[in-house]
Structure formats: C-alpha cells, structure tokens
Amino acid sequence: MKKTKWLTLALATSLTALALTGCGSDSDNNSSSDTSSTSSDTTTSTDTQSSAPVKLTAVFTKHPLTQELAKMEWLTEAAKKANVEIKWQEISADWGQKKAAMLASGDIPDIIIGPNAITDADYAQFPGLFADLTDLIAKDAPNVQAMFDAKPETKTISTQTDGKIYGLSKYQRFWPATVSRQYINQQWLDNLGLQMPTNWDELYNVLLAFKEKDANGDGDPNDEIPMDFSPVGTGGFGYFQPTVLLGSLGITLTDASGQGYFVEDGKVKNFFTDERYKTFVEFLNKCFAAGLINKEAFTQDYSKYQSVARGDGDKAKVGFSWGWEVTDRFGNQLAPQYTSMAPLKYSADDNTQLGWDYDYNSLNYGVNMVSISEKSKNKDAAMRFVNELYDPKVSMQVLFGSLGTNIKDNGDDTYAVLPPTDAAMDPGTWKWTSTWADNGPMYIADSLNLTLGTDMQSVGQQTEPLMDTINAIDKDNDVLPSMFIKYSAADNNMMALNNTNLLNLTMAKFSQWVTKGGIDKEWDSYVKNVQKTGVEQNLQIMQKYYDDYKANK
Amino acid sequence: MEMIRYRKKSANDMIFDIGVAVLSVIAFLIVAYPLYFICIASISDSTLVSTGKVLLFPRGISMFGFKEIFGDSRIWTGYRNTIVYTLLGTFVNLLFTLPAAYALSRPEFRARRFIMLAFVITMFFGGGLIPTYLLIKSLHMTNTMWVFIFPFCVNVFNLIITRTFFETSLPKELYEAASIDGCSHFTFFRTVALPLSKAVVSVIALYYLVAHWNDFFTALIYIRDNELQPLQIILRDILLSNQVFQSGAGAGGAAGGYAQKFADQVKYGVILVSTLPILIVYPFIQKYFEKGVMIGSVKG
Amino acid sequence: MSTQTKLTVPNRETSIIAKKPNIFNTFRRDYQLWIMVIPAIIVIFIFNYIPMYGIQLAFRDYDYTKGLTGGAWHGLYYFKMFIDNYLFKDLMWNTVKISLATIIIGFPAPILLALLINQIRSKRAKKTLQTTVYMPHFISIVVMVGMLNVMLSPNTGIIGNLMNRLGYGDVNLLASVNSFIPVYVLSDIWQHCGWNSIIYLAALSSVDPQLYDSSKIDGANRWQTIRHIDLPSIVPTMIILFILSMGNVLSTGFEKIFLMQNTLNLPVSEVIATYVYKIGILSNQISYSSAIGLFNTLINFFFLFATNAIAKRVSNISLW
Lengths: 553, 300, 320
Fold this sequence. Notes:
Mean pLDDT of chain B: 83
CATH class of chain C: Mainly Alpha
Organism (chain A): Paenibacillus cellulosilyticus
CATH superfamily of chain C: MetI-like
Largest sheet of chain C: none
CATH architecture of the domain at 70-229 and 282-293 in chain B: Orthogonal Bundle
Keywords (chain A): Signal
Number of helices of chain C: 15
Structural class of chain B: mainly alpha
Order of helices and strands of chain B: HHHHHHHHHHHHHHH
InterPro entries (chain A): Bact_solute-bd_prot1
Radius of gyration of chain C: 26 Å
Number of helices of chain B: 15
Protein name (chain A): Carbohydrate ABC transporter substrate-binding protein (CUT1 family)
Main location (chain C): membrane
Oligomer: heterotrimer
CATH architecture of chain C: Orthogonal Bundle
Number of strands of chain C: 0
C-alpha cells in the first residue's frame, strides 16, 4: 500500500516535470518571480509619491562582517525617501556560484548591488537581462548625473563598449594612492646602531645584521626573521609582496600587477620576461640563500604570516615587511617599534626614476556597483532608490555608517567619523560591521567636508614617506589604467586563458628561483616558454585598448 | 603431542593478539591526537596555535570562538532545519533505494543489467548546474524544503553497495524456499531481506544521513530564504566572517587588528559544533555490526 | 497476496519451458520487482537524465539569448583547444599520478583497518577505536589543510620537529614537489580510512558465526581464519568498490588540492580540476570547462567500463 502511494506521487511529479521542461529552454523564464502585484503600469504607481511604497526585490553582496541590512538606519530612510519597500537577499559568500544559476535561469531580482557583482563579461554574455540605465538616469537620478558631471571618469567606467550603461560606478575619494606601505623595525635598527637602508645593498646588510645579531635583544640571535611577505599565490602576485622592489628598477606596478603587466613610456609590458625582473629575483635569491627571508614564506598561509609578525609579547620577530597599516600588520603591542620607510634605490649611485605600486584608481573608483533588471516592473522606482544612495550625504553613510551612531553632524555642514562604540573594535572592523562600507555604491563629492577616523588618518601618515616617489610617477605614461579600460568579452576570455597558462609557469619558476637559485642558467629557455603561453598576444590586445583609451582621453 | 601443539597455538595467538593491540594503539594515537588538537585549538589563542606553541594543552584560553558561533541567533534555526531535512531526506532516500536495490539484486530479474547500466551512466554524465537549476525551478522546488528531499534521492553508489550486499548475504535458496510457501517479493523483502541486512541498511542510512547533514551546496544554489537555511550555510557564514579578520586587510581598509588573536578559534569551533550531533548517531548504528547478530536472530 | 503468487508460480514454469526469458515475457512474473524499482527509475530519469541535454554545451557556444542549447555548433573545437593547450600533458600526468596514488594506497587501507578492528577481542576497545577513526571524516577540508600547515611547519610544527629530531634535517614537507603527493595521499587516508572501513565492517558482521566455530574445531589459526573466512566475505564489496574507484582516475578532489597548492609545489599540484577552476573563475568559459569536464568523464567511464569487464570475467562480480 505504502509503496503504491509513493509510486503515484512519483509518477505525478515526473509527468509535471516532463510537461514543464518540454516547452523550450528560456521562453518560460519570463515569468518574473517577484511579488509586486500592484503595478501593471509603472508610471501611474510610481509618480504618485503619496501612494503605498513600491515593493522591490534586491540582492546585496555584502562583506561577511556586515550586520543585517534591516538594522541600518540610513538604508531604511533612503528607502522611505524613494517610497520603496525592498525585500533584501543578503549574500556574503559564494556569490559566484549563486550568480551562475541566477543569471543563466534569468531568475534575478529588481536590483543587484555589490562591487562588480555583475561583471562586464556577464553583461556581454546575458544580453537583455539588465536594463540600459542611460534614460533612467536622465529621468530619475539627478545625483548620479551630478557624479557623472563632476567626475566624468565615473561615466566612462560605467559605459560599456557598445555605449550602454548597465552598471553604475562609485567614487570614494579618500583612499590613498597605494595599498602597500613598507615597514622596518626601527627599534632593531637602533639596538644594532644601524642606519635606515636606502638601497638594496644597504637593505641586504641591515637584514644580515638582523639575522646574525640579536636584534630583538632576547639573548637568542637566531629567532629573528629579517624579511617576510604575504603568501605568494599560484594565481599571481598580490599586495604586500616583494614585487614593489621592482619599483627600484623603474617599474611602476598597478594594483600589484599580479599578472606582470605594467606600462612604461606608453608601452604595455610584462615584467615576467623583463631583464629587471631577473635582477630582482637574483636579489631575492641572494637574500633567501643567506637566510634573510622567512623559510616558510612560500608555504605559510595568511593566518600564520600575520601571527608571526605579532611576535611574542613585546618581543618582535620580523624586521622588514609590507602591509596596509602598521597596527594591522604587527598588532597594537608591537606597532610602535616599526616605522614606515621610503622606496629603496637599486644602488647608491643609481639614478633610475623610482616606481612603486600605484592603486589610487582601484581604491577610489569601483565599477558595476548597481545593476537593475530589464524585466523589473518598477525600473523607475528602483532607479529612484539608487539615486538616493548617490546623494553625497547618504553616500557618506553608505561608507561609514549612520549619522548619529557612526558619523557626527557638526551642524555647520561639516561631519566627522566617530570612533567605534565598542571599545574593543578597531575603526576598520567597526565600519565593515555597521554599514555597506566599500561594498556599496557611493559618490563622495570632493566638496563634502568630512573628518576621517583614526585608522584612515594613520594610513595617510604612514604613506607619507612614499609620497615623493608616488607624486613623481608619470600617471599618463607609466600607469596601467586598468580601471578605465573595458575589454570585449572575446578579448577578455582569450587573455584569461593565456594568463592562466602564463602564471602556471612563471609563479612556479619564481619560487623555485628564489629558494633554490638557477635563474641565470634557465632564463633564456624560460623566456622562450613564456612566449608560448600567449603573453605576446595579450600585450598586443592590451596595447590596442590602451592606445584607444589614451586617444579618447 | 597434542599438548605441545595446543601450547604452540595459544602462543601464536598471544603474539597475534599483542600485534593487534600494538597496531590498534598506534592507529588510535595517530587519529586521536589531531582530533584532540582541534579541541584545544578551538579555545586557544590563534596566534599561538599557528606559531606551533599549542601542542598538548590549550594556551591563552578564551571562549571567543564559541561565543561568536552561539551568539548567532540563526544557528538554532539552522540546527532545526538541518535535523528536519536530514531525517526526512534519509527516510525518503531509503524508501527509494532499498526496494530498488533488492529488485536489482534478484538474478531472475531480466531488466536488471540494463537498468544498472543506465543508473551507472548517471554517475558520470550529468547536464551540469544550469540545466539542473532550470529543472528544479520548473518543478517549483527552489526555495522550498523539498529541494533537500526529492532531487537526487537515489544515490547510485549507495544503491550499488546495497545491491551487492543483498546479492551476497541472502542465500539464493532462501527466496525459493519462501516462494514455495507462497511468499511474494514484497513479503520476502519486508520480512526476510531487510531484517537480514540490518548492517547494510544502517550503513546506507548513515551515508545518506551524513550527506544530508554536510550538504551546503543545495542550499547555496536553491535557497534564498534565511528561514530555510541549514546549519552548514550558517556556520559557513560565521566562519567566513571571521576568516576576514585574517585576510581582510588591503584594499578595503584595516579589518585586521580586532580579533586576530581568536579568528582561528571559530574555524576549529565550527567543526565541533557541526559534527558533535552526527557523531552521537554512530554508536547506535555500530551495534548492528556486532558479529553474527543478524544471522543468529533470523535462524533462532 | 497469496492468490497472486499462486498465479505467478505456474506462469514461470511455462515460460521457462516455452522460451528464453526476457524483459517482456517475464514482466507478469516479476511485476513486483518492477514496482520496487520504478520509483528509483523515475527519480533518476527526472533528475539525472532530463538535465543531460546540457552536455551539448561542450560542443556549442553558450548564447544566452538563444537558450541554453541554441548557441552556434562548434563540434570538437573546445576539446581540441584543451588537448592543444600547452599545459595539457602536465595536467593529465599530475591528475593521473595523484589519483592512482590515492587508489593504490588508499584502497587497501580501510580493508586492513576493518580486518584489524575485527580482530580486537575487547568489545570496549573495539568500539573506542572504531568511533575514533570514524571521526576525522567530518573535518572540513579548510581545517584539514589548516592543520597540515600548522603541523608540517619545519620551524614550529609537531611533525616538522619530529622529522628534524629523526635526523631528516630541516625539511619543509609543504615546499617540495616530491612530498606533495605523499602528504596529500597520507592525509587523505588519515581522514577517510575509518569512514571507508565501515562498509567492510558491516560486511564482516554478516559472516555466519558457525563458520568461525567450525574453523576453530579444524584447528585453524587466526591468520587462516582471516584468509579463509573474513577475506572472502568482503571480496564482493571490495571488487565493487574497486571498480567504482577506477571510475575516478581523472577526478581528484578539487578543494583540498587547491588549498594545498603553493608556488613551490605547483609543477605537480596543478590538476585538471584546479585548472578548470582557474579558467572558469577568471572568465565565463562555460563551454570550455564543460568540454574539459566531458573529456574527463569519458576517460573515467572508459576505465570503469574496462575494470568492470575484467572483474566480470575474473570473478563474475560486476556493476551490471
């Protein structure tokens, strides 16, 4: 008896399944799943502000630390002002996988918000899924228009190669020109009576002294790690890695140039086949062979890398390293021992124009922060809500949190970011916890008068020693404007494939050469192999786009 | 003569037993220490853990990790959902798998080779995520609890294991004898095959149970409603929000200082929180492995 | 019920006499078996066979506007692209090496463990060991790799230190191309051996106790009991599981390898799964990654098919 009942149930389900899947693949996706039953005609329902709020659905890809959206006062107010009621889906992990299913099935909410949540490649691959916002901006979004007028580059990066605007950009103004600051343990220098190094040779000697002498003064001359850097991934270089030393040889990295691409005198190049990269690897090998680099630099994970730098109580373990901010890198207890230092020259008599890692664009601009569904029945309402977010005073709260709890209104049109109410928390964590922070769309107008929190102030101070070098960088001819270039889908795919092959070869060689040496012998055959990965093709593609970008600028 | 042989044999047995004991103790230690390590790491200062200073006893003890985990109110909804999905899901799994495995184990069932081949093919060839998503959506199972219960409720691997067991542990003559007594397949399956196969049924039940318990991919793709999220998704959220303490520096701004010391606690704590309930299940299943329990009970 | 069986019994006899039994003429006799298997058939058909049209993606461009299967037909273009890829040989070789090592060492381990546990006389000790070895299965891969990092560290790890004391010098097991596979395989065995032994323990439990009694009377020692009673009772399960594991020669776990990867072991740790992940995440290479997936599947299936055929001939045990 029991079995037959299940049988009928199963049969019934299978028949429904057949009926449903029988009818083509995407014609049935048009049935929008959202609940807004009120408006069949958008204009009538949206133009009357007094009417019931328009119901919208939205996705926000938030930072894992970020609290529930319902608890953000500024958000509730913005929605109220736009007369919308939003059902949020808050995603803090695995967005890529969720997105794949969502987009391919056409099952998307009215609004999707998040940093590059929908990529240019997605817009190209799923035509018709997202609304062209050009007309909506003109009609419903004066704040977005204001951003475009004041900062034309924000419009450039919002516009696809076909001239349509699918995703809106952001401008957050306050961030420094680079992610990486360079730190050395000043107390160790003082203990050993050493001068701050200014070039590679001096650095080598200082590190050697750190290694051989008891720099931290605990009686054990062997527990010092002269140099450490963040784990080098198999997918390319990242921040806080020795690649910034390439600056000493005149190479300016952009966004860490993880895949090796940089620009020099208006030419796109890749440092993996550059002679200067060879010099740089040789230097690292010399350091590694002398025991100056953490033995585990290539195998430790980020957690260990951070833990090691926190030393043991007030006893520091690491001499020279890179990081975002000194307390983040070495912990509150050891931070006072360290000082941030200027970029190094290659040698005392070398006059190469120094470079560094230039990240101003990627830190202060962001692409595709907001997208609106083409199938949405309430595009105007969605756009009005988005417009609220781009009001500079709302944007400021998107970034730092609600007025009152997170930002103080001084009453004279000036504002100040408040310290965390939870004393145990640092300002960075507090920001990420209380609001959308950098993951939100925003326009922080240059005219806005806002005093930053202590964390951003100290980042600013620690960047000072780098500023001479950074100011001297020729931003027009020596910086890869990757933030402002949009590649076609086909070019993008081609480049990604080539880069995967390129990095598989180069990253393995890099760590092998640093730890075991041998670059001199293998260099020529290595360069030949690198050519085979398609890097030349990538350089051509990038050069073409770069030239177009400069011509249109 | 007899005596000597006997003594020699018992001496042999003794050596054998000692060998077994030594090997068992080694196996036990190799497995137990890392498990113990997880426990002490979940309450120790993470900085000390990752620099290798926590070996035998917890150091820098703090309950930060567990506070983070249990401070999240969603965790109880998660437990509830997961228990419901697991129990109901496993029940449906067994309902579909066991009879099919029995039928496919019968040598006289002519279609069995073809059906088995057709089943095995699905272990290899699949349509991929997108067609499956479209299918589940057209069945209106997305964002419902049924997506945990019905899709893929027959696991071919488990089916094969069960079938093999039925084939080998049910003596062939048994059904023939029973069928002469007028016993149908239904009755035979219920009254003879299942009771004789308690060991494999409990193993398969365990396999399904654990698969449901650990499953987070289904929820990841098909569930949008927070109220329906299973435990694993919630733990994953908690885990990730603490991982960023370690890797959160960089472009976003300093998110590192706070809680760096205890971030890894969450990682280890999550293991304990998510597996303790399922570990309790094992002893109940274990008792069906007692030597000869089944055969004895049937024959007796 | 009883009337039905009365009807079927003579039927079967006539059919045996009349002609060779096949699917159609045995249907009336076996209808109950059909009823038992049909729910499973339906479920598998719906959830596994219906979405299979997606396999086409490997031969087509993915074009959203034309539906999942409407893109331009590319034939074997993406397969060629993979085979012509200059990493192809390395990827294949690495993948096969890792999975063969896993099979060769990983397959017998749970069998030996089950036999060992089965020999323990004290019930309490037996249960303790059984429960303990089963637990590591539940450790997530992230934590597993995290623990490997902590314990294998040459400076501070417990295993690193041990190697140091044993005079192997300052070895970093995480850093070398030679130690990647051993570390991967051994940690895998550590984690899953206990769990995988459960099925063998279940098989061992169904041995008729009378057999043990009679072997004792015959004067067999413990080794002989293992060889002649225990082992034969788990052989069918062993063969079936071996066939199934041979169907995995080109599928290594993704996450663990990916997390264990570093630039030093990359020459041996880049496998098909991690490569697909890298090209997939960098760009929307749906068709290309489907083609690689299908290529994998075909080879896996071939190995399964071949092993199954051999097993059938040798032992008369097979999947179908």
